[in-house]
Every structure is written in C-alpha cells, then in structure tokens.
Design brief:
The chain is an alpha+beta fold and about 180 residues long. Helix content is about 35%, strand content about 30%. It is built from four helices and nine strands; from the N terminus they run βααββββαββββα. The chain has helices at about 25-45, 55-75, 120-125, 165-180; strands at about 20-25, 80-85, 90-95, 100-105, 110-120, 130, 135-140, 145-150, 155-160. A five-stranded mixed sheet has the order 5-8-9-7-6. The radius of gyration is 22 Å and the shape is elongated.
Length: about 180
C-alpha cells in the first residue's frame, strides 16, 4: 500500500516539502506480550509465593522475571514501527510510539541515496537499531524495501520504510538543490 500519492509525481513536478513514510512490524507485538507475561510471572511470584527455600532465591526469581519482562517489553515496543521524515534539511528516523531511539541526519552529511529492494533482519543480525562494521548502521523493523544513505567518511545508514523509492527520489532532489548549479552551467 502506498501512502504517498506524491510518489507517482511526474518528472516535471517539484518534490513535496516534507516526505513521510512508515514501516510496521506486527510480530513485535507478540514478543512484547511475552515480555508482559514474564513481568506478570515475576509479580505473581512476589505476591503469592510459598517458597520455603528462603528469601534470596525468591528475590532473585522475582527480579529476574521482572527485569527480563521489562527488557523484552520496552525493547520490542520501541521497534513496532518506524517513522521517517525528509525535509529540506535532514532525514529523521523515529522508532516506536515514543519516537525513541531517534536519529537525525543532516542532508549536508549525505553523499548519496540508494533504494534497497530487500532489507532483511538476517542481514543485520535481527530487528532494531543495528550496527555492523562492514555495513554501517541500520534501523530494521521488518523485511522489505529500504533507503540506504551514503554518508560522509564512507559510512552508511539503512532504514526500512514503505515506499522507499519515493524517499530516495526526494532525497536525491534535495541533494541536487544543496549541491547548487553544476560548474559551467
């Protein structure tokens, strides 16, 4: 589904002032519910426990379950969806419902933009905010199309987003404007 009618614009039309896109992963809700179940188990142990082996094992079990549950719950909810925004100055990526983690990349730090037709969590070692020395940094919330930015100093940044081709066109248009007129033109 394409959310951006401006992506079907003709070559003569100007790019939109602000381009926005999203990507969603409903599978993360399943993992978040597993985190909530771990938290519930920890709370249940704390409230209704008949452990006769002492307080230390009980406390360790309760803290372990609650901590694991919180990590799973908040770690997965942060990557249920990603929102990408391209304006005249920057590309901004916001994750989850609270918009954290967030990354803002000034377009003056972008050398080029490419469309990646298939970005997978396996390529990056899983879902979420990822870093691999040979590939750069990525925000991967689902398998599918994405935008790959070539940054100054040879770094790369990848983000999965719906209608990534339109995002790449807008970014390239912005880069041409930032570069100014060609020499001798």
């Amino acid at each position: 589904m394409r959310d951006h009618p401006q992506s079907e614009r003709g070559a003569s039309e100007t790019p939109p002032e602000i381009w926005t896109g999203r990507a969603t992963n409903r599978m993360q809700w399943l993992l978040a519910s597993a985190g909530a179940a771990c938290m519930a188990l920890g709370i249940e142990l704390a409230v209704d426990s008949a452990w006769t082996s002492g307080i230390a094992p009980l406390l360790m079990a309760v803290v372990g379950c609650v901590a694991a549950g919180l990590l799973m719950l908040f770690g997965t909810l942060a990557f249920v969806h990603v929102a990408v925004r391209v304006d005249k100055d920057s590309l901004e990526v916001r994750c989850g419902h609270m918009g954290l983690p967030r990354r803002r990349i000034p377009l003056s730090h972008v050398v080029g933009a490419d469309f990646a037709p298939r970005v997978t969590p396996c390529q990056w070692g899983g879902w979420g905010y990822r870093w691999r020395p040979e590939k750069g940094t990525a925000v991967v919330v689902r398998r599918g199309e994405g935008v790959v930015l070539d940054l100054v100093e040879g770094r790369k940044f990848t983000v999965t987003v719906d209608d990534a081709e339109a995002a790449v066109r807008v970014i390239r248009d912005r880069l041409r404007v930032l570069a100014g007129p060609a020499p001798g033109a």
